[in-house]
Every structure is written in C-alpha cells, then in structure tokens.
Amino acid sequence: MAATTLTDLVADVNQRVPGLLTPHGDLEGRLVQAISDDSRRVEEGTLFFAIRGEVVDGHDYIEAVADAGGVAVVAEDVRTERIPTLLAESSRVATAHTSAAFHGHPSAEIQVVAVTGTNGKTSIVNLIEHLVRHAGRTAESFGTLTGTLTTAAAPRFQERLRSAADSGVTVVAAEVSSHALDQHRVDGTTFAIGIFTNLTQDHLDYHATMEAYFQAKARLFSMCEVAIIDVSNEWGRRLADLVDIPTIEVDATAETADLRPNGSSFDWQGQRVSIPLGGRFNVSNAILAAEAALCLGLEVDDVVAGLVAVPQIPGRFEWVAAGQSFGIVVDYSHTPAGLEAAIATARELIPEDGRVFVVFGAGGDRDPGKRPMMGAASLSADVVIVTSDNPRTEDPGTIIDHIFQGIDMSADATIVREVDRRAAIGMAIADAREGDIVVIAGKGHEQYQIIGETRHEFDDRLVARSAVNTIAEAGRA
Fold first, then answer.
1. What is the rounded distance in angstroms from the CA atom of residue 277 to the CA atom of residue 390?
2. pTM for the complete prediction?
3. Overall average pLDDT of the 377-400 stretch
4. What gap in Å lies between CA 464 and CA 62, rounded to an integer?
5. Which of 453, 469, 436, 224 is nearest to 327 (CA)?
C-alpha cells in the first residue's frame, strides 16, 4: 500500500466512524508507511496498534515503538509524548477500521463472502473459490488451509484483501471465526454475502456460554449485504429471525441425497447434481456454496458444472487409498456434533455387516466441557479408540480421562484407550476388514502434533498409509 499522511488516515477513519480516533500530539507532516500490531516489526514510519491481549498488552511496548521510529500509536491511553497517540475507546475496533482505511478499503472493490458457523466453514470457502474459478472468474479463499489462524488479525486480513484486489481477484471467500468477530478483526469490512452454517458446542473455553458464542457469530450479519442461513438447525432459525438484511433461508438437510463412498448426488434448483465428495454434510456444504455462487452472479448451469468437478478438500472426510480392502477417512471433526456426523456419514457408506472404527482425541488447552460430550458422541461407532489429539501443555492422559467421563462402558461398542496417536491409528487399521471404515478424526489437514509447546511432524493421512503398508509387508514376509 502506498504511504498516506497521518492526518488523512485519521480523517478517513473518523468520516466513516465519527469520533473513533482522537489525536493526541502533532500529526502534521507525519507519513504512515506501514501498520503493525507487533512491536517487533515496527520500523521508521510504522503506525503501531497497542492491543490488550489475554497474555500481552501492546501498551507496554509503546516506548520501544518510539525508539524504533514508529510514526504514531493507536492506544487506549497515552504512554509517551515522544510520538502522537490516536486515542480510542477500543484499540481492537480502531485497529480494524484503521487497517481497512490504510489499505484503501479493499472490500469495496471485490465481492467478499464471509462464512461462519461451528462446522463447514473451510469446505464452503473452498467450494465457493472453486465454483467461481470454474465459471471463468478469479477467486481466492482465506481460512484454516491458508493461514495460521482461521481469520487473520485485522492488519493482515486487510493486507490480504488489498493484495487480492490488486491482483485482479473478483471474489474472496473467507472463514470468519467467532474469536475474530468477538475481537473485531473484520470490522470495517463490507461483506457482499454472509453465510451461517450451524452452531454446536465448541470454544466455550473462550465464550463461556452458547449464547455468547451465538451472539459473536451474529455480529457478522451487521456487516453483510445479503445473508444465506441454513435454517435446518435451531440457531439458524433464530438468526434468520434476528437479521434485518435480505436473507436467503436454506434447508441444507440434504434429504434427497444419494450417498456413495466416492461421491454424492442431490436435488438443487430443479436439477440432479453430482459431486465427487462423500458424506451428507458435504452435500449440505455444497448446497450453501451453490446458493452463494448464484448470489455472486453465476448461472445455475455453471454452478452445476462446477460442482461435478469439485476437488477433494484436504482433511474434510478425505479418503485415504493405499491398496487396502476397507475404507479410511481422515476428517477434521473436533466437536461432538462434528464427530457424530462423521461417524453417521461413514455408517451410511458401508454394508449392514460393516463396522465403523473411530480414532479421536481432544485438543489440550481448549474447551474441556466438550470432551465428555465427544466421548458420548463416539459411541455410535462400533470400535472406539480414544487417543491424543494436540495435547499441548496438558497431560494427554488427563484429557483422555475427561473424554471417558462421557463414555458408557456398558455400550455395545468396543472401547480402547491408547494415548499414542500413531499406535492408535495402527491398531484400528490392523483390525479393520473389507466392508469396514476407519474414521481418523480431529486433526484433518494438519501436518503436525503439538505436544507441550513443540510441533512434531504428524500427518494422519501419511500415518494411515504407513500402517497399511506395514501390515501388507508383514503379510508378504
């Protein structure tokens, strides 16, 4: 982005949100050449955003910013007279709007689609990107598969939008998380379309209650021109009653779906549509993405043709083929509802005498309340192997104990505890036979496992293939 004067930047922000920034100090002659919420990246001419976090308070680094040649700071109080302070009631809100202004309000130049909800965000943004590209337009997706956070911090989010606009992209489909909405990361963005998928228990370590979680999601629709809401769930129906923008209500239950291991077909817009993705939830995701594509100006025939050619989405009910006689699926499901849906989807794809194996755990340093619920959800499988996910700084055995609190040991399922994830995957694959499906849940596309504060190389797909090959070699020996 080209440099702008500090006075012009403040004027732009305050014109759009009156009184958001109150200058303290002399702004004249100061040129903003960059913006950052990381004091370590401040150079001469950088505007620094001082944000109060749970662990670090950016206000504590304002003197260091002055030492580094920062042009000014956005802050909630004045810490130094050495550089100007742009006072704001909330640094987070001011950061988002100022970032959008610095980058020239890129969301006004392209169609930005926001997708929120507990499950389905990644699949839908990737489906939208594919459909738009297949129809001959340019598109990009932001989210879990393209960044370290589901939704980037405001300076980076606006920078990416600016880069997309400058490179000729016409549509951006972005995952927008509840954390991002609560922390105002996407404030100042105009979304052409907002999509709501569903709401099930997750992130209550942050939001505390489902009501607070829902209200965070609902914030998105104050920034959207059109809403597409899946009203097949109670939270979607409630949201549809709340929003005051044009709304397309979609029942994405996929009741007409024909499900196969290597694909699905369903009715949409008077046509029978086929997609090379298995699973009822993938049908629901495809329906929501297709509705968004229509809103973006695509024709029904173009959308249908695009759906036929959809590629596999990494870690989203992804089939692993290594020459085995049974199914192996790697899925990102890491919530009770997501796990239950993955198991139910697998059940629909096997013969009556087939078995569903599920290998799963729960993330450490995350919502502990959902762990027993995941244990209960797993009992719809025939063989349950509880293992580690990303334990982070928690004891893996303690996390598994929490999961077992929700497991009825008198259930019909075979229940196994194995703390080592590699061994757990190998155990399931060694026992599976033709007609069975092994669902490896929780980590999906991730290529690492976090133990303590260290990332170790670990890809469920590679581990599964290795286990199949090891068994095959042992059989040939």
1. 27
2. 0.83
3. 97
4. 49
5. 436
